[in-house]
């Protein structure tokens, strides 16, 4: 099973960690950003990594968990022209973008390919009581409270981590990883 992750921030980096700690050894991750101090409250990076490429650093951190993992990363800004090509060989795609227009773009470009997509909506704020899973369409699952976005609320590690864990679990369950 090969899982693609679009974005290596709070959701993407934490989903990757959960997947690798569960036994997934093949990931394909895209992001173009660098690590900033403000990321450290919710992303799987460390203070000494500030200023480094998110995807290259995430790969190093994942290899510290599983040195035999096959983690392909690319420092790339995904768009309509390159998204399908980037994830063509992935069975599952995790949407981990910050902005809703990119979330929509990923779904519009990847969903017609028949891949399982796991997305997030409403992962900001500290309230954990309203985190839900919605199966929006067959093979499209969205996790979050669907209200508190990063545009209006701060993000905190507990909510981001819980949403990421749920997203990883959906990918593992629906992807057939777990024993029956």
From TrEMBL:
Name under which the protein is recorded: UBA/THIF-type NAD/FAD binding protein
Any one Gene Ontology BP term: cyclic threonylcarbamoyladenosine biosynthetic process
PANTHER family xrefs: THIF PROTEIN (PTHR43267:SF3), TRNA THREONYLCARBAMOYLADENOSINE DEHYDRATASE (PTHR43267)
Superkingdom to which the source organism belongs: Bacteria
InterPro entries named among the record's database cross-references: ThiF/MoeB/HesA, ThiF_NAD_FAD-bd, Ubiquitin-activating_enz
MF-aspect GO terms: tRNA threonylcarbamoyladenosine dehydratase; ubiquitin-like modifier activating enzyme activity
Annotated ranges, domain THIF-type NAD/FAD binding fold: 2-124
SUPFAM superfamilies: Activating enzymes of the ubiquitin-like proteins
